[in-house]
């Protein structure tokens, strides 16, 4: 920019028409070019021209060029700025356009338009920066005061800006070096002005006029800056005040006395230190805590570590290092508590009492951890709670299901963001004593992951040799867990890691029989539900037959949890009736009356409530107690969910009932077989494990090798059972994975039925592993399996001979309902499974057919 010296522009200038921006002499502007005329100008003149002259163009502001090429040229603004094109940048996105960097030289006036296409060219007259003005500084003298005033404002404005910014410092220097007449244009393009204002300045050809018009713009900007600085300052003051509040208090200004101030200021940290010193934590812990508190005192509160350290110290203070409850153990009382809380479970109660007795005799017991293993809802957790009650200890349950990170047990190191102690230490903090009963629920559902093996961490917790100095990663000091009584629960031992299992004494808690369930319901569950729903026995009566109905038709479980839920549903429904009845003084309740009538039909002699009178007054609220019969059951719980389907499903050959054990208790399992023409293939469906598949192959092989003996033939009468025959074996409940060897005898029976065409007895169920030689080997879970068969109403149960000892565990009344067949080989199984025996009958049939 040749500021200060005269400029001579050509008399003919190509014109660039700008719409949104105004270029003033002495300033630089970047403008986007995309209209056809302007594009032509850039292409033909700027990009192709070679001389310096060809880079000088006339910029005419405030004129929008039509987008279409053929349209007439719009009216042009009279005055424009001659400019030097400094840079051209082309781009094709989002549409073809150029970006032009132009520097304004001087004003000009359009005298005559010489041509319009492809871009306008005009004859122009230069209006300023002519030689006669720049020489002799005539204008400065003439303008005198006006120019001086302008200069002062300009200096004031620039000095209000941050002079440490290089561009601002440069501008300050320019104010002194540039000729005064150039300043209005330059400053107008720097300060905040609208296009309209810039246009007015452009149009102000006379210098005096330009100065006059620019001064108010400068003043406006100065005022704006002043206001801005004022608000900024007040905000800074506020900030400073916040920061200085604490120091001021320390010095003891204002009304706060020295003592109060001292107390308040040392506040939490001092209190914390006091607490640490008076707490009964171990020596090692005290040392660590004092070191930490020293660090804390030096730390600014805003540091993230401050909160972290404080939380740590607060936890350390809260932990029950030396606080414990006093055991009040008396075996006789314990027996009463256990008996009162739980019906049946004799074996479990006996073992628990033994355990407690040893504890009573020997104060510090380093024995194995008790682990209750059994299906859900059999009272494992509630026995744990009872143990805590008998000992007078706090109870805390730690659910381990799905825990797959060892930090869950052992805590995170304090270096992690969001670190926290593990569940053991957290539990101790919650109960507030160091000798609670901790129930480690579902240890069989611990999982492994990349974050380490939580079971391994539990080992340290449970091992009496190690747990007196259990070190949680978060605490980083040892905590004595030897006073804690750990009890574990699990559904199965199969998935408990062996090392963990080794440290535990497993006590099996089998499922309940129907009779036991009825007793549990009437002694424990129903009274509990009544209390929870605010009902009294005078308002609701559930006879034992109804309970049996719920057990057999609405639940299929080893425990009593679903039964408890159903009883809850009944209580809720009755609560509504009772509440309604209290308001319905005069209105008869027809539905209720109908229900009561039904009740009368179903109630057995011993459970018939005396309060139901035949002369029930229709004008009174529902007769109390409301009796729950089968009709009411259906109303409340819906149609029965389980029907006795056993006999229906055994009405054709190729079906047999097996007994399976699952972590949820025993279950009856149907095995179905069918045959079809084929090439001797065996298809197995029902999500079977490898062991079960092998059992199926074993069964087929045994039957094939004994086909003649039992006169078993395929469809075409051949003893080669797989000759031109495919067999399909299916184990229903296909969504459930099944495995284990105990289905062996059932598969043999099912296939024997298929090939002999005879029906298996509908009331027989069986379990047992088989060998290729036809022996029956013992299996596990006999008690659960027998209970399942009993629940399903089956009468005869075939079990391996060597499982005879397991029958002792089964309650007498269940045994009386059932016939047990102890089978040593498959002959005995088949004989017991078919009415009239298998082999004999088969031979007779064969003889008959020959006749
Ligand atoms: P688990 O821990 O075995 O899954 P819970 O201990 O949670 O089962 O028991 C479920 C419910 O059944 C509890 O309300 C419990 O009181 C009750 N319950 C289970 N067995 C008995 C029993 N033998 N006597 C009394 N109530 C029982």
From TrEMBL:
<feature type="active site">
    <location>
        <position position="785"/>
    </location>
</feature>
<dbReference type="Pfam" id="PF00004">
    <property type="entry name" value="AAA"/>
</dbReference>
<keyword id="KW-0576">Peroxisome</keyword>
<dbReference type="InterPro" id="IPR003593">
    <property type="entry name" value="AAA+_ATPase"/>
</dbReference>
<dbReference type="InterPro" id="IPR003959">
    <property type="entry name" value="ATPase_AAA_core"/>
</dbReference>
<dbReference type="Pfam" id="PF22667">
    <property type="entry name" value="Lon_lid"/>
</dbReference>
<comment type="subunit">
    <text>Interacts with PEX5. Interacts with TYSND1. May interact with enzymes involved in beta-oxidation of fatty acids, including ACOX1/AOX.</text>
</comment>
<keyword id="KW-0067">ATP-binding</keyword>
<keyword id="KW-0645">Protease</keyword>
<dbReference type="GO" id="GO:0016887">
    <property type="term" value="F:ATP hydrolysis activity"/>
</dbReference>
<dbReference type="InterPro" id="IPR015947">
    <property type="entry name" value="PUA-like_sf"/>
</dbReference>
<feature type="active site">
    <location>
        <position position="742"/>
    </location>
</feature>
<dbReference type="GO" id="GO:0005782">
    <property type="term" value="C:peroxisomal matrix"/>
</dbReference>
<feature type="compositionally biased region" description="Basic and acidic residues">
    <location>
        <begin position="582"/>
        <end position="611"/>
    </location>
</feature>
<dbReference type="InterPro" id="IPR027501">
    <property type="entry name" value="Lonp2_euk"/>
</dbReference>
<dbReference type="InterPro" id="IPR008269">
    <property type="entry name" value="Lon_proteolytic"/>
</dbReference>
<feature type="region of interest" description="Disordered">
    <location>
        <begin position="582"/>
        <end position="614"/>
    </location>
</feature>
<keyword id="KW-0720">Serine protease</keyword>
<dbReference type="InterPro" id="IPR046336">
    <property type="entry name" value="Lon_prtase_N_sf"/>
</dbReference>
<dbReference type="InterPro" id="IPR003111">
    <property type="entry name" value="Lon_prtase_N"/>
</dbReference>
<dbReference type="GO" id="GO:0006515">
    <property type="term" value="P:protein quality control for misfolded or incompletely synthesized proteins"/>
</dbReference>
<comment type="similarity">
    <text>Belongs to the peptidase S16 family.</text>
</comment>
<dbReference type="GO" id="GO:0005524">
    <property type="term" value="F:ATP binding"/>
</dbReference>
<dbReference type="InterPro" id="IPR020568">
    <property type="entry name" value="Ribosomal_Su5_D2-typ_SF"/>
</dbReference>
<keyword id="KW-0378">Hydrolase</keyword>
<keyword id="KW-0547">Nucleotide-binding</keyword>
<dbReference type="GO" id="GO:0004176">
    <property type="term" value="F:ATP-dependent peptidase activity"/>
</dbReference>
<feature type="domain" description="Lon proteolytic">
    <location>
        <begin position="650"/>
        <end position="836"/>
    </location>
</feature>
<dbReference type="Pfam" id="PF05362">
    <property type="entry name" value="Lon_C"/>
</dbReference>
<dbReference type="GO" id="GO:0004252">
    <property type="term" value="F:serine-type endopeptidase activity"/>
</dbReference>
<keyword id="KW-0007">Acetylation</keyword>
<dbReference type="Pfam" id="PF02190">
    <property type="entry name" value="LON_substr_bdg"/>
</dbReference>
<feature type="binding site">
    <location>
        <begin position="374"/>
        <end position="381"/>
    </location>
    <ligand>
        <name>ATP</name>
    </ligand>
</feature>
<feature type="domain" description="Lon N-terminal">
    <location>
        <begin position="13"/>
        <end position="222"/>
    </location>
</feature>
<dbReference type="InterPro" id="IPR004815">
    <property type="entry name" value="Lon_bac/euk-typ"/>
</dbReference>
<dbReference type="InterPro" id="IPR008268">
    <property type="entry name" value="Peptidase_S16_AS"/>
</dbReference>
<dbReference type="InterPro" id="IPR054594">
    <property type="entry name" value="Lon_lid"/>
</dbReference>
<dbReference type="InterPro" id="IPR027065">
    <property type="entry name" value="Lon_Prtase"/>
</dbReference>
<dbReference type="InterPro" id="IPR014721">
    <property type="entry name" value="Ribsml_uS5_D2-typ_fold_subgr"/>
</dbReference>
<protein>
    <recommendedName>
        <fullName>Lon protease homolog</fullName>
        <ecNumber>3.4.21.-</ecNumber>
    </recommendedName>
</protein>
<dbReference type="InterPro" id="IPR027417">
    <property type="entry name" value="P-loop_NTPase"/>
</dbReference>
């Amino acid at each position: 920019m040749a500021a200060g010296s005269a400029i001579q522009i050509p008399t003919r200038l190509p014109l660039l028409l700008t719409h949104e921006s105004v270029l003033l002499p002495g300033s630089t502007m970047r403008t986007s070019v995309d209209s056809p005329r302007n594009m032509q100008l850039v292409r033909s003149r700027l990009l192709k021209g070679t001389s310096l002259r060809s880079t000088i163009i006339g910029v005419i502001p405030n004129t929008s060029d039509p987008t279409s090429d053929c349209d007439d040229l719009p009216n042009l603004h009279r005055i424009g700025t001659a400019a030097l094109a400094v840079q051209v940048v082309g781009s094709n996105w989002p549409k073809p356009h150029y970006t032009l960097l132009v520097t304004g030289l001087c004003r000009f006036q359009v005298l005559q338009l010489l041509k319009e296409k492809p871009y306008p060219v005009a004859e122009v007259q230069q209006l300023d920066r002519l030689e006669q003005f720049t020489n002799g500084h005539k204008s400065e003298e003439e303008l005198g005061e006006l120019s001086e005033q302008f200069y002062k404002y300009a200096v004031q404005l620039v000095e209000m800006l941050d002079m440490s910014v290089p561009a601002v410092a440069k501008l300050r220097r320019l104010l002194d070096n540039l000729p005064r007449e150039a300043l209005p244009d330059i400053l107008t393009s720097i300060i905040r002005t609208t296009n309209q204002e810039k246009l007015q300045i452009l149009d102000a050809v006379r210098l005096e006029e330009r100065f006059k018009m620019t001064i108010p713009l400068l003043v406006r900007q100065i005022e704006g800056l002043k206001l801005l600085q004022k608000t900024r300052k007040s905000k800074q003051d506020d900030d400073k005040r916040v920061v200085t509040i604490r120091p001021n208090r320390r010095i003891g200004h204002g009304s706060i006395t020295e003592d109060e101030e001292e107390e308040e200021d040392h506040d939490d940290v001092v209190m914390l230190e006091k607490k640490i010193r008076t707490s009964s934590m171990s020596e090692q812990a005290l040392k660590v805590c004092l070191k930490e508190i020293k660090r804390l005192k030096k730390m600014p509160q805003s540091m993230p570590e401050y909160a972290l350290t404080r939380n740590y110290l607060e936890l350390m203070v809260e932990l029950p290092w030396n606080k414990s409850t006093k055991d009040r153990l008396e075996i006789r009382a314990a027996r009463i508590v256990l008996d009162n809380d739980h019906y049946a479970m004799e074996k479990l109660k006996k073992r628990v009492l033994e355990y407690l007795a040893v504890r009573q005799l020997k104060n510090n017991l380093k024995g194995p951890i008790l682990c209750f293993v059994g299906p859900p809802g059999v009272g494992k957790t509630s026995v744990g709670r009872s143990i805590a009650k008998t000992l007078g200890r706090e109870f805390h349950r730690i659910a381990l299901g799905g825990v797959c990170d060892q930090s869950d047990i052992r805590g995170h190191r304090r270096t992690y963001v969001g670190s926290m102690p593990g569940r053991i230490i957290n539990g101790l903090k919650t109960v507030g004593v160091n000798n609670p009963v901790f129930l480690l629920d579902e240890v069989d559902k611990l999982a492994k992951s990349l974050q380490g093996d939580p079971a391994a961490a539990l080992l340290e917790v449970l091992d009496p040799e190690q747990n007196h100095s259990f070190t949680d990663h978060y605490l980083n000091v040892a905590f004595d867990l030897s006073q804690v009584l750990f009890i574990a629960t699990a559904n199965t031992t199969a998935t408990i890691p062996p090392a963990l299992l080794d440290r535990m004494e497993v006590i099996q808690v089998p499922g309940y029989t129907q009779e036991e369930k009825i007793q549990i319901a009437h002694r424990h569950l129903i009274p509990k539900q009544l209390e929870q729903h605010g009902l009294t026995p005078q308002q609701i009566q559930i006879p034992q037959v109804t309970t049996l109905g719920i057990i057999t038709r609405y639940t299929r479980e080893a425990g009593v949890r679903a039964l408890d839920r159903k009883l809850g549903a009944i209580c809720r429904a009755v609560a509504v009736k009772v509440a309604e009845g209290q308001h319905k003084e005069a209105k008869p309740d027809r539905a209720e009356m109908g229900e009561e009538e039904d009740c009368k039909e179903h109630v057995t002699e011993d459970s018939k409530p005396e309060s139901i009178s035949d002369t029930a007054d229709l004008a009174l609220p529902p007769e109390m107690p409301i009796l729950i019969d089968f009709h009411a059951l259906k109303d409340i719980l819906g149609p029965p969910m389980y029907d006795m389907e056993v006999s229906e499903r055994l009405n054709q050959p190729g079906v047999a009932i097996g007994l399976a054990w699952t972590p949820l208790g025993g279950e009856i399992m149907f095995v179905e077989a069918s045959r079809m023409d084929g090439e001797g293939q065996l298809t197995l469906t029902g999500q079977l494990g490898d062991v079960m598949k092998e059992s199926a192959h074993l069964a087929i092989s045994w039957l094939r090798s004994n086909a003649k003996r039992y006169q078993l033939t395929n469809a075409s009468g051949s003893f080669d059972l797989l000759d031109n025959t495919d067999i399909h074996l299916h184990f229903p409940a296909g969504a459930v994975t099944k495995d284990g060897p105990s289905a062996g005898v059932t598969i043999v029976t099912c296939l024997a039925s298929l090939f002999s065409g005879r029906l298996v007895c509908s009331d027989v169920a069986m379990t047992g592993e088989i060998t290729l030689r036809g022996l029956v080997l013992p299996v596990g879970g006999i008690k659960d399996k027998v209970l399942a068969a009993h629940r399903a109403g089956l009468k005869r149960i075939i079990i391996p001979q060597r499982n005879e000892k397991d029958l002792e565990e089964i309650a007498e009344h269940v045994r009386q309902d059932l016939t047990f067949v102890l089978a040593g080989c498959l002959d005995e199984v088949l004989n017991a499974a078919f009415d009239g025996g298998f082999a004999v009958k088969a031979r007779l049939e064969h003889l008959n057919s020959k006749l």
